[in-house]
Amino acid sequence: GSVTIAPLPTNLTPDAIKSLEQDSKLQVTQFTGANIVYFGFNVQTPPLDNLKLRQAIAYAIDRETIIRDLLLGQAKVAHSILPEESWAYSPGQKYAFDPARAKQLLDEAGLRDPDGDGPQMRLKSPIKFKISSSSVATRQYVDVIRDYLKKVGLPVEIETMETNTLLEQLRLGDFQMTTSRWVGGNQDPIFLKDLFHSSEIPSQQRASRNRSRYKNPELDRILDEAVNTPDREKALGLYRQAQEIVSRDLPMFPLWYPANMSVANKSVGNIKIDGSGDWSFVRNLTVNK
Fold first, then answer.
1. Cα–Cα distance between 158 and 136 in angstroms, integer?
2. Coil, strand or helix: which one is 278?
């Protein structure tokens, strides 16, 4: 007989997933995920070329509350682009929700509250936040994040577009801020070089992954040494340094690791999805009569 099981689409809203759990014939399973949802900043163009502004954005967002109330527990706060189960994982600088710290950083960045009593906007023009139109779930959390940023005086204008159009604009550097989800690949720390080495900045001819256009000669040197170091213990120290630098400079801000979820008939057993979302476990599924 046939076994019915399917991964839950990543663009399904948490509410829709919860409604599936009410079906007595179905089981919804949830496993800790390794894929990453993140903010990407264009660090070469104003205003997000300002490090303190990027750090203020990180402090202004209450990710724990978003995960609890909007994502309904279907994610875990991220402190690195690498997942916690990666051998090279190191959290670096953490950004707990701290709106007072966010406002202080904005003041230090020269973006002062015009009248000093809040919540006046600190930027003359809103931050342009470009996202894909393909996911209702993405739009939901971006709307919430826009409200958090408004509370510290940062206006945000959300622009939605078709995914391929968005990817082309990111490649060309035609953006200020974006959000997306990496699926697969980030368990290997070599991924850090793909994302943050200056040689990986995209061009007209090449669609590379350093879309933030981040350049740091010290980080380049550390990553070059790390990927060519066979001694894992030594490489671990180098990757730890790399994550410390990236978490401080914030070319990207890791938001959360979405849970890996599946829906199946109640009769299906031995469902075990690993962090990457690999589905090789289906070979070992059982069916209870």
1. 13
2. coil
Contacts of 238 (CB under 8 A, 6+ apart): 222, 223, 225, 226, 229
Mean pLDDT is highest, among 118-122, 185-189, 256-260, for 256-260
Strands across the sheet containing 260-265: 5-7, 260-265, 26-31
* One domain for residues 140 and 18: no
Query: Token pair 């801020």 is at which residue?
Result: 177
CA–CA separation, 183 and 288 (whole Å): 32
| Residues of the domain holding 203 | 36-257
Mean pLDDT of 111-122: 74
Distance CA 219, CA 244 (A): 10
**Same domain membership, residue 204 and residue 125:** yes
- Across the chain, the runs of DSSP E, i.e. the strands, are 5-7, 26-31, 36-41, 75-77, 127-132, 156-161, 177-182, 252-258, 260-265, 268-269, 286-287
CATH number assigned to the domain comprising residue 135: 3.10.105.10
pTM: 0.92
